[in-house]
Amino acid sequence: MSISLKKSTHPVRLTQAVRDTIKGTVADDPVAKQYLPQDAESFIHPLERRDPIGDDVHTPVKGIVHRYPDRVLFKVASACAVYCRYCFRKEMIGPGTKGLLQDEINAALQYIRSHKDIWEVILTGGDPLVLSPRQLSAVIDNLCAIPHVQVVRIHTRVPVADPQRITEELCAALKRDKAVYVAIHINHAQEITDDVRRALKNLHAAGCVLLSQSVLLKGVNDNTAALEDLFRQLTALRVKPYYLHHPDFAPGTSHFRGSIKRGQQIMRELLGRLSGIAQPTYMLDIPGGFGKVPLTPQYLNEIEDGLYMAEDYQGCKHHYPPKE
Ligand SMILES: *Cc1c(COP(=O)(O)O)cnc(C)c1O
Ligand code: SF4
To answer: Is position 80 annotated as part of the catalytic site?
Structure first.
């Protein structure tokens, strides 16, 4: 396997709120590892690429990714409050990239308006919550005025990385008659502080439905106890664990990628041990733009036509339909 070396261009940015949650060094701390560069980042795996999940091939107008018929990504910001080392869009975001100009925002909105199949718009980036409440409110006003858009979803790390930004003004901008979902990016229970709890509470009080998305990161959260703790705490904070992503082939991230087998083993261990409402779906984004697929371990095998063997959470096997 050939390995090339590159000096990382991915910016380093942490907020004070994040610094306060770091208890060790980049060698041993689950939060530090997410934000501080390690030497391993300079190794570029031959399969790693600038656009790991194939956004470009599904971009009809700047800022829109239309891969599935009923929903689009709308990349409204190209900056983030913090920069994650494992980011799957690390080559497309950051201080050196340009956000959308007003004309480009208008063209993206026009695309959504003219495609009646678009039922849900997912604001992403970068991080949509780095926009000012006024800017964000204007985008959401436009989306809510489109009759076929029934759901607005925001993917963000801000409630965790910069909870001070979840102000009354921002919450007011998110309070809508149409459903607003907020999918919060968080990877470890150590990231949940009192300020984060308050931010989540305020988002919930504004009527947002809260989901979480996490990335399975080697050395950060690739163990059952850490994820169990995270998903329990989130669920108790009214955040429904939604996706646990297998890391993508972004340049310089191989030290974060474990095996799918290990991820499935963790998912098996969580089943039964952790409430069903606290279980996320383990997901893979197929490289090249083919969409996401669940990596749920198999619990049911067909042994004959219509006859199955089901494995329970303790590993015992049972016939389905039952024998007598
Ligand atoms: C991930 C993604 C979505 C959202 O997928 P869900 O399974 O609905 O969460 C939508 N569009 C694109 C292009 C995506 O990459
Ligand atoms: S917040 Fe999201 S988009 Fe921004 S660097 Fe982290 S993973 Fe990437």
So the answer is: yes
